[in-house]
Amino acid sequence: MPPRRTAPREPAGAFGGSEAEKAEGPGEHFRLFNPATPFQAEDPDFLAAALNATPAYSFVDQPDQLAPLHDALDRVSEVAIDTEADNLYRYRTRICLLQVMAGRSIFLVDLLAPLALGGLWSRLAARHLIMHGSDFDLRLLHEFCDFRASSLFDTMMAAQLLNRPRVGLAPLLEQHFGVVLAKEGQKANWSRRPLPQKLLDYAALDVYHLPALRDILRAELESRGRLAWQEERCRWQIEAALTGFPQNDEHAWRIGRSERLGPRAQCVLWAVWHWREEIARELDQPPFKITSNELLFEIAARADAGLPEEAILAVNLGKRHGRLIHRLTDAVRAGLAKNPASLPRRRRGGRDPNWTPLSAAELALQDRLKSDRDRLARELNLDPTLIANRAQLAQIARAPDKLDTILMPWQADLLRNEPALKNGDPEAD
Asked: Is the peptide bond before 194 cis (omega within 30 degrees of 0)?
């Protein structure tokens, strides 16, 4: 059983305020260290040691441990959460661990344990969430238990709107708190039981500083007039998560530069891609652990060059080579025998069967929109794709009157009075 750490061990001085303040939610009781205070100025090593110390936490894998978690959630209006999954180790991703920080209490909930979690999900759904890079986590939670957040502050989204050069949690924590997260936690097998204590420590740190980081980024967004943008993006993310993860469609096999391959090679690529998917499902491992996209493409390219079968199959499948090479051989043979006309055909422009290419006038408007967007982005010191990405620019060029349905309000407001949309006719520019 993983170690349970329930005794209070949080670093002295990590939080300020009265006992009443400390009992409030994270937004009220989090305080940053102030290096100018006499104690810390006299003892500079204290600050680094305290910030890098592992906070106290409780590991929850037994039903009777849920009550303290519920009690902690009932006392706050917002919580910091994160998840850990095993998508690097399994074909069918499982959510393995949920980190929850409610007030001063951190709980690491084993989602692989036989726990009745209805009370947890209903409480989390009713509270404001602080997360970092919430897209994957919210989609995963929705898939796991139909979870829907009610409100959110995503610190990665905030960092993007502030055009921070590095928006990952690790660089932000290092920048603001001097905290260095262990890299092994990013690629760990979170379905392993018992979980090593170093991974539990890592998981606790993932939520420990989120409220304080939120406060820093929120203040800067507010000072730059971008807090409303952040709120709109977070609301959009909550709704987007309800659509779940994109599923492989009939064109998922078109990897890399597949469009450059001839018909014979495309048939082989189709066959070996599906071979890999079948093996990955059987072994419950991610497809990339069976073999890389590069190798699949190389096999298809050899077929394109007209090489004999033995040359096409001159590959090394690692420790499973003996088990898999016969089925790969069958797949290559099936691909070589496949009629190229039987391959699924792409609809021009994507999935919409009514799509037609942009007209010359629409293409010209798209170019002017891009020029306006790029100039705005430079003026605002913002990634241009945060204002509108390429696909959105094409949609606006085709239907300028649908600007407010294509973009979020803050994005639309930035573009609507720019020359491309305000003047319309290029002769008026």
From this structure: yes
